[in-house]
Amino acid sequence: MNQRTRMFRTLGCLVGAMTGTSALLAWMDPSSPVPAETLPSDEVLRLAHSIVADDGVIRSDKWRNIEILAGPVSGDSRAFLTAVAGRAECDFLVDLEGRPSRTTRWTQQQSSTGQQHTVTIQVARWQEHELMTRAQWRCVRALSAALQEVAGPQGSPLPVRLGEEWARVYGVEADTPLDLAPSDHAVR
Prior knowledge:
Blueprint: H1 3-28, H2 41-53, E1 65-71, E2 92-94, E3 100-102, H3 104-107, E4 118-124, H4 134-150, E5 160-162, H5 164-170
């Protein structure tokens, strides 16, 4: 084997070791989110509508408002975290990458005891005082639009409100209806 071949093999091993070490460190210390590709707006809207409306009977007379809650990082995130506390207490989840999913609570059209008639969307966050990302904000807006169309009572919109934790972050009262028009101050 010549010197050049040995050098390329050594370089290949070094690159492989560095990649493995990087993945291990990201798993051990997930202090910052792994950058991900964001979905185009039309795809987010289609996905949100599908998650809200597919495979279930929606009782539109049951739902009167939407609340956006702050939640822990879910196990679906690419950073390999597995904390999912509170998952059973919400209808929809939005991960760090701005991707929506639904829980069995939504498919079974269940209300929680403390929040009857409220559809809840839990948005993951890394730190307590952190704003939603643009991708998360876009996903929340898409879920809200789909819910308005599918679950809203005929002729009147479902008011959207921030839960207490998000309300503190954005400096608003938790009871204040939220305007879901795009705005740069609402995201980071």
